[in-house]
Amino acid sequence: MQNGGLRLKHRVAVIGAGWAGAAAALTLARADVAVTVFEAAKIVGGRARRVEKTERSFDNGQHILLGAYDRSLALIASLHGEHVDHVLERRSLSMRMAAHLPEPLVLRAGAGPAPLHLATGLLAARGLTISEKVATCLWATKYLLCARPAASATVSELINEQPRRVRALLWEPLCVAALNTPAERASAGVFIEVLRRSFLPNRSASDMMLPRVDLSALLPEPALAEVVARGNTVLTSSVVMALRNEDAGVSLVTRDAEHAFDQVIIATGPQHVARLLESFEHSQLLRHALESLQYEPISTLHYEFSAGMDATDAAMLMLDGAPGQWLFAQRLPNGRVRASVVISAHHRADDEADLLRNGLAQLRQSFALPEPIWSQLITEKRATYSCTPAQVELLSHLPRAVGAVRFAGDWCVPELPATLESAVISGERAAQAIIQSLPKLTN
Ligand SMILES: Cc1cc2nc3c(=O)[nH]c(=O)nc-3n(C[C@H](O)[C@H](O)[C@H](O)COP(=O)(O)OP(=O)(O)OC[C@H]3O[C@@H](n4cnc5c(N)ncnc54)[C@H](O)[C@@H]3O)c2cc1C
To answer: According to CATH, where is 3.30.70 located in the chain?
Structure first.
């Protein structure tokens, strides 16, 4: 459609340029809808972004994508084309514990098609006894293929019948990694949904994808560059302070101007939605629900070493949770190794220096490391909402639109945990809902 076509006359604002907002804006722009993006920060990406500090750039936190992230991977492929293998490294499922740990587990995808590859992988795993392996295969068969947990069940209740070591070595670490919520509080329904999407469709769904460019460059920056190239506007360092419901659309207030739009997508974190909706009638229940949400933090300890760690061997290792749960390593262009230690659902009281020291001491149990050349702790206090049965139930009943305002963001797809994939799905869904409404609106 040319400039001046019906769709281009329809003005849509997207508030927030995290992965949800970027996916929404790109979907609208590709359908020739005129879109303006407002992002409060200087760098786009939200909770999955590049940080520029102390003459370095690094991610706010290590992220991994799964082969099951159909929508995120499709969008990334459409943006990076033939270079997609350079921006995401695909690894077959591998859960390997750092070597020094007393009960090392090594689990890899086994032979055969899905879901047989999980069973053959479990049977060949190192660190589990035969009876533990058989009990785990039977449990996985039951929950992947037939049984559905009760909506109110926690992961601890779900895995209660599993041997203690299998719970501690496999399911509890997987739960906190996937849901960013400890097993005793995490939703069994969402956990099983993640396992089903990862192990049932095909072998590659359980692959792990490690970003090899920074998180902003992986999706939000190229997506928004295309949005601009298609004649639209992206405003960074631009905070939307309020929305006003008008007869014909929505007014959006920034520090220095008021802008009129036909429709708006709010793609901020859930904690920012209520304030934006303050002047909207009938939004009280939604605002109270979102204000009541509880969150889980994630801390990431970044270190740079000149020697002592092989980046290939340590690309992704499980740790014992004291304090780090996972280690990710990669070689930088300058030859150094960057090690990122992740602590999910991390409610620790340790101060920054202690945590960095304890993380280093933990790494030194497995590697002969010199003093780090650089270290940095980043704690995202509201990394994700807590994926508890009660919150999943609450979110699944919330509306996805109020008048001419639609919502996007990881909280809008509560059948999945708060992830890059739920953010992208929500952004695409919100944009599609607008696109599908257009013929009616413009007639
Ligand atoms: C440390 C960490 C590790 C994680 N690890 C993983 C992982 O391994 N795999 C995975 O899939 N997921 C992971 N996640 C979760 C994932 O990052 C989030 O689910 C996802 O990024 C949420 O995207 P979003 O677009 O919904 O929201 P956000 O990323 O929060 O984006 C919202 C945007 O809105 C902007 N904004 C807010 N208010 C305003 C306003 N008034 N005006 C203008 N702009 C505004 C914000 O600045 C932000 O850029 C992790 C999260 C963290 C923090």
So the answer is: 296-385
What does each C-alpha distance from 72 to 12, 88, 149, 209, 436 come to in angstroms?
22, 12, 27, 11, 21
Tally of CB atoms within 10 A around 66: 22
Ligand 1 pocket test: pick from 63, 180, 416 the residue with the most ligand atoms within 8 Å of its Cβ.
63
- pLDDT value, residue 7: 62
Which whole number is the average pLDDT over 367-381? Answer: 96
C-beta of 16 in contact with ligand 1 (< 6 A):
yes
Positions of E strands within 100-213: 106-108, 208-211
pLDDT in tens, 67-82: 999 999 999 999 999 9
Answer whether 384 contacts ligand 1 (Cβ < 6 A): yes
DSSP 327: E
The fourth-level CATH superfamily of domain 6-60+214-293+387-442 is FAD/NAD(P)-binding domain (3.50.50.60)
Ligand 1 lined by 423 (C-beta under 6 Å): yes
Q: State the span(s) of the chain assigned CATH 3.50.50.60.
A: 6-60+214-293+387-442
Does 38 sit in the ligand 1 pocket, CB within 6 Å?
yes
Instruction: Give 276 Cα–ligand 1 centroid separation in angstroms.
Output: 17
Average pLDDT over residues 307-316: 90
- pLDDT digit string, tens, across residues 15-62: 999 999 999 999 999 999 999 999 999 999 999 999 999 789 999 999
DSSP letter, residue 174: H
- Residue 288, number of CB atoms within 10 A of its CB: 10
Copy the structure tokens of residue 149.
């947990």
Say if ligand 1 is within 6 A of residue 267 CB: yes
Could you tell me which residues are beta bridge partners of residue 94? 108
How far does the centroid of ligand 1 lie from the alpha carbon of residue 383, in Å?
7
Mean pLDDT value across residues 181-198: 98
Residue closest by Cα to atom 13 of ligand 1: 419
State the fold for domain 296-385. Answer: Alpha-Beta Plaits (3.30.70)
pTM of the model: 0.96
- Using the mean position of ligand 1's atoms as its centre, give its distance from the Cα of residue 26 in Å: 17
Ligand 1 atom nearest the C-alpha of 21 is 25
